Amino acid sequence: MEPLKIKPLAGRILISVPFLQDFYFRKSVVLIADHNEDGSFGLIINKPVDVRLSDIAAEFAGFDAPVYLGGPVKTDSLFFIHTRPDLIEDGAKIMEGLYWGGNIDTVRELVKSGRLSPHDVRFFVGYAGWMANQLDRELEEKSWVVSLTDLKQVIGEDTRDMWSQTLQKLGREYKLWVNYPSDPMMN
Questions:
Q1: Within a domain: residue 186?
Q2: Where are the beta strands (DSSP E) in 83-154?
Q3: What is the DSSP letter of 61?
Q4: CA torsion 148→2→35→103, rounded to 10°?
Q5: Residue 148: inside a domain, yes or no?
Q6: Contacting residues for 176 by C-beta, under 8 A, at least 6 apart
Q7: What is the pLDDT of residues 64-84, one digit of tens each?
Q8: Total domain count for the chain?
Q9: 1 pLDDT band (50/70/90 cuts)?
């Protein structure tokens, strides 16, 4: 089965193949935030963890935003994407309407004042990173399928079933992957 021929660029997603068994990347969808000759980084967008931001960051008390497992790099740090460049300065554009990071002090103030809602911002523990040419090698090894996405899919929907839903949208040959067992040895 030949993967789709879409290049990995900021604002696109990586969909893990079903036999990828890595703890972080098994059945994952990764939003590419940047991809260039120096390397790549992104966020796993379909793995919410069972805590709220206010549970792990006292400065966000009362802010009931979900937190996602962003990837295996810097898992002791919080990262965020948002849809409010008009309010949060210094963010890097990922795609139309979506930005990575920015001034965290501004985010804290916006949350305190009630001007930022959980629908405007998504928080992640850790991120996914690749050294120069590493992601390209993984794509050659067919560990990932690159696909297009949109703002609604990335930040506006419940993402828990995103991996299977995205595969089904790619066509008949990818629908077969949805039923691939989580542990092939148990099949």
A1: no
A2: 92-95, 98-100, 121-131, 144-147
A3: T
A4: 40
A5: yes
A6: none
A7: 899 999 999 999 999 999 999
A8: 1
A9: very low
Q: Per the domain annotation, does 147 fall within a domain?
A: yes
Say if CB 151 and CB 94 are below 8 A apart: no
Do 92 and 100 meet the contact criterion of CB atoms below 8 Å apart? yes
Distance CA 148, CA 154 (A): 11
User: Has residue 3 been placed in a domain?
Assistant: no
> Is the per-residue pLDDT at 183 higher than 90?
no
Distance CA 29, CA 16 (A): 7
Distance CA 65, CA 67 (A): 7
Domain enclosing residue 83, as ranges: 13-180
Query: How many other C-beta atoms can be found within 10 angstroms of the C-beta atom of residue 169?
Result: 12
Q: Give me the pLDDT at residue 145, please.
A: 95
Structure tokens at 51: 């805590």
Q: List the CATH number of the domain containing 139.
A: 3.40.1740.10
**Tens digits of per-residue pLDDT, 106-136?**
999 999 999 999 999 999 999 999 999 999 9
